Amino acid sequence: MNQAYNYNGKAAYNLESNEIRNKLNNYQKEIIHYSQMQTFSRNLYEKNYYQGLMQNRTDNFAAELEEMLLSESLAENDTEDRVFTLSELSYFDGSEGRPAYVAVNGKVYDVSNIAAWGGGTHFAGLRAGNDLSGQFASCHRGMAAMLDQLPVVGTIALEE
């Protein structure tokens, strides 16, 4: 799915995955049932009827999945208002299929689709899920424009 995510933590991710898995299992059971009914049907009308039911359920599942992905995509656009604590940011380290986020100068960027950040790691042992403002300033002096090309997913909370 996703390539910038609107997560509220690990539980939200698991809930979403389980919801999709449950829907898929339910659709699969229905389609298998219709397939069996089609196999044992004795006339062409019944065979066509069950074929139509299978196609309808497949189309419904595809539409439902597309809607879920679209709503997630729309949620991505709302993430710029999200405020991350350093603890929350650390979850988005690019491991186990999670997105890779880094904070630089108060903004949180999604680097998941950047090849140089593959697996949530970058040159010189830098890891996603951290505030890398100091490292960015020392390595990319005068190159702040490169950040404009990255999706902003939020801001970092000020420490109190």
From TrEMBL:
Residues 84-157 form the Cytochrome b5 heme-binding domain. SMART domains: Cyt-b5. This is Predicted heme/steroid binding protein. It comes from Anaerocolumna xylanovorans DSM 12503. InterPro entries: Cyt_B5-like_heme/steroid-bd, Cyt_B5-like_heme/steroid_sf.
